[in-house]
Amino acid sequence: MTPPKAILFDAGSTLVWLDHPYLLDLARQYGIEVSMERLLDAEYTAKTRLDELIRSGEVSDDRKRGEVFFAEIFRQVGVGREAFPSIAKALWARHAERNLWSNVRERTAETLDELRRRGYRLAVISNADGRVEALLESVGLGSHFEFVIDSHQVGIEKPDPRIFHIGAERMGIRPEEAVYVGDIYEIDVQGARAAGMRPVLIDPLWRWNDVDCERIRGLHDLLDLFPETA
Question: How far apart are CA 138 and CA 120, in angstroms?
C-alpha cells in the first residue's frame, strides 16, 4: 500500500482523552464505586451503542451523540436513569470550564514528532464546540499540526464527507492521499471512507475484532503502520 502524504486526526479519544478520574468522582457522588477497568469497559460499550444509534439514524448531531454516550457510560456502571439529568448538567458545566477531553497520553507528542520527521503532514478534523484548536494548544500539541478544522466553525459535522474534503483541499492533496485516525466507527471510519480517505480506528481495549478497517491500540502504533516516506 502506497504511504499517504498526510495523516489527519480526530481530537477526542485520539489525541486527547477523557478525564476518567472526574467521571469516577462523579459516579461516587451518586453512591457508585467504580474501578478504572470497569469505567473503560463502560466507555467501550457506550461507543458500541452510539454506533448502533448512528446507523439507525436515531442520533444525528454531535450534542445528542454526547448525551447518549455519557448516559450509556453511567448506566453501565450502575447509576440510575433518574440521576442522569443532574449528571448531564454537571458534565456539561465541567466541559465548559475545562473540556472533558483534556488528558494527553504518554508518547503522543513523541509520536507526532516522529511522524513529521518521517515526512507526513499532520492536521486535525474534529467534531467540537469551537474550542478544539485552543485545547490542543493548551496541552502542548497544537504546534504539530498544519491546521485544525472544528465542526462548529465550518458548520459541518462528521461523518459528513464534506468536512474531510475540506481537510484534503486545505492541504492541496486528494482524499485518497490521506489517512484519517479516529475512535468511533460510524463517525470516523465511515465518514473518512465515504470521503475517499484511508481510515484507521483507535481500539484501546482491542475488542472491535469484526470491523473492516485497520486498528491500532494507541497513537504510537502508527509508527508501525507508516514508515519513512521516500
Answer: 23
Query: What is the C-alpha separation between 156 and 187, in angstroms, rounded?
Result: 13
Three-state DSSP class for 168?
helix
Res 63: pLDDT: 84
> What is the DSSP secondary-structure string of 63-93?
HHHHHHHHHHHHHHTT--GGGHHHHHHHHHH
β-pairing verdict for 148-150 and 178-182: unpaired
Average pLDDT score over residue span 47-75? 91
CA Rg value for the chain: 17
- Cell 464546540 locates to 129
Contacts of 16 (CB under 8 A, 6+ apart): 99, 101, 102, 103, 104, 135, 136, 139, 141
Q: Provide the grid cell at 156.
A: 459541518
Give the pairing type, strands 121-126 and 101-103: unpaired
Element of type H or E holding 200: strand 198-202
What's the pLDDT tens digit per position in 192-226? 999 999 999 999 999 999 999 999 999 999 999 99
End-to-end CA distance of the chain: 14
What digits encode the pLDDT tens for the residues 116-149? 999 999 999 999 999 999 999 999 999 999 999 9
